[in-house]
Every structure is written in C-alpha cells, then in structure tokens.
Amino acid sequence: MTTSSGHPDAPLDPAHQLPAVIARNEKTVEDGFWKKMVRFAGKVPFAEEAAAAWYCARDPRTPLRVKATLLAALAYFVTPVDLIPDVVAAFGFTDDAAVLMAAIGLVSSHIRPSHRKSARAALDLPPADAEK
Most C-beta atoms within 10 A of its C-beta, which of 3, 80, 82, 111? Predict the structure, then answer.
C-alpha cells in the first residue's frame, strides 16, 4: 500500500487527509442535516444548539479547525449508523447530544449571536430577547 508521501513504508500524514475528511463531513451535513431535523422535529432536545452549530460551520469567518470540529459532530448526528439508534425512545439522541455538546463546548466562543439568531429563526422559535 502506498501512503500519502508515495513511499510504501512512510506513515500516513493526517494533515494531507484532513481536507478530504472535512469535505466528506461537509457533504454529509449539507445533504442530511435539515432532512433529519425535519424528520425528528420536536424530538431533538438539542435542536437549537445543533442549528447554531450548523450556521457557525457554514460561516466563512469561522476558522477551519472550528468548522472541522463542528462538521464532524454534525456528521455524527446526521449519519444513520449510530451507537444508539435514534428511533430508540428517550435514549436515541443521547449519543448525538453528547458528541455535539462536547464539540460545542470546545468551540463555543466561535458560535456568534447571529448563528443563534439564525438557528432560532430556522426552527421557527421566537427571538431570544422575546422570551424575557
């Protein structure tokens, strides 16, 4: 087997693989995020956070490492193969929530108020300031 350097004994260089992984995760999220949100409307307890992460990942101002982190977590949410299947009552989104909340915890300073506002609008929720 030939590695990324072309030499059969050289280790694979993760830096060369990263753009392909990010692109694959971006396609997965692009193709399935809103479909899954609509399909499980009202059953995703972290919908607002997931949507804010989606908007942050799509924002051109978001740094690449932050996009990569959010896209990986959102791709896990979108992918039907799951540690706990989403159709399992009460527990189906537990693993998705854990992965997404861990990712958001790592990059939360990059999720802007505008991302949260867009998320609330997309989910047809009242503006955050309207709840006070």
Answer: 111
